[in-house]
Amino acid sequence: MLINNMWNNTVNISTDVLNNDVIYEEVVSKEVVQKLTVVFVMIFTPLFAFFGSLGNILSLVVLVQNRMRNPTNFLLAALAISDLLFLIHSFIFSFIFIYKSRDPIGGENLRRTTYPYIGAYGSIVTGRITTWLTTLLSFERFIAVRFPMRVRFLCRKQNTCIAIAVVYIVTLVAFVPFPLKYRIQYQPNSSLVILNRTALGYNLKFCAIYGTLLNILFRFLPILLLILLNIAIILAIKKTWNMRRLISKNSNHCTTYEQNRITMMLLTVSMVFLVCILPGALNSLATKVKPGYSIFGKQRNLYLSISCVTYFLETVNSAVNFIIYMAFSKKFYTTYKETFCCRTGSRVHKSSSKEIIRYKCRWQGSQSSSSGTHEGRLSSLLSNRTLIKKEQQQPICLLHNTGDIEICKFSCQKGERKDVNEKTERFS
């Protein structure tokens, strides 16, 4: 696998250079490989990993808000977690490269110590979880577009949570044999840590068959399903567009518009995923098809050059989802502003869902009371509700938040002042 081979690259260079039996084809020079490693692995990957991690943390905070809790956002929250974990592994991977360039022995010892748990397991597992969660997102959106009347039943919160749990648990368990293939040995008379294979690791037939099976189930199969689902979604949108316009006449136009934006957002997430992941999948497939194209083959330099770029693309895929959410989802953008961009005087106190605001109404005489009806007086009060006596000491809370509806009830009699309660209702 690509991630596994990239981590192997940090160890096997010294071993492979000493092997005089391997003659490399100079398709790509060693200097080009070193430059690509510096640019993509040591500079771009840690930058995207750092800022992408911040974006995934912000996405997770927004998606767990009460108003954002729906099946689609549950999947997006689970995706943010897997992306965050993958970016952490990417950052560690880049740090090992940088550390090894400064201290070859110390960096190599760190790589060998962490490889069984991070390189051979953690990076691969988080990447494969992201793959299947993205496929589940497309499947959920396909049901919403193709079977809009059944989406409430098929894509319930309970079903979505079960699907997320299955993806995480099955993936974590399926890749357990990978770290068991290695063992770490410390030699008392040497400062270099030795990474050896266990009996399972020496079972080359099992490793080849099991690795190929997992590569199909957790890489190529979900990518194929993702392509087919996205094509089906596009065709379903085109086919049912007129039907949705007819339905929208009897429903909330804002809701229909927001659903269309969500569909476009998820399609964008899927397209970015395919653009960033497909090159790595094809690169991995090429190692099985083309002899000599591997980390130990004759075309080693070409393989390492392409692997640097494809690994960086996988990092980009896990880092840009926050930008996509902000660009396409108005609800996500609004919730983000209300959560992180607090403005003075724009939020209601959270201690109660009902705020009591006192107004004082003063009547100017018998002319105003006799010249209009009760409805006219109520309309006048509603239009002038912000005009309050200067001597009133209680602060007035003006409701500007999206989702707050003011329902004012005034009860005034001629020639006297009376306090009026304003009740607010909040809906999600």
From TrEMBL:
Keywords noted in UniProt: Membrane, Transmembrane, Transmembrane helix
SUPFAM superfamilies: Family A G protein-coupled receptor-like (SSF81321)
First-listed, main subcellular location of the protein, grouped into a coarse class: membrane
Keyword field contains Transmembrane: yes
Listed InterPro entries: 7TM_GPCR_serpentine_rcpt_Srw, GPCR-Ligand_Int, GPCR_Rhodpsn, GPCR_Rhodpsn_7TM
UniProt superkingdom: Eukaryota
Gene3D superfamilies: Rhodopsin 7-helix transmembrane proteins
Pfam families referenced in this protein's UniProt entry, alphabetically: 7TM_GPCR_Srw
GO CC terms of this entry: membrane
This protein's record includes keyword Transmembrane helix: yes
Cell location: Membrane
Spans through the membrane: 38-62, 74-98, 118-139, 160-180, 220-241, 262-282, 302-328
Domain G-protein coupled receptors family 1 profile: 55-325
GO molecular function annotation: G protein-coupled peptide receptor activity
The protein's name: G-protein coupled receptors family 1 profile domain-containing protein
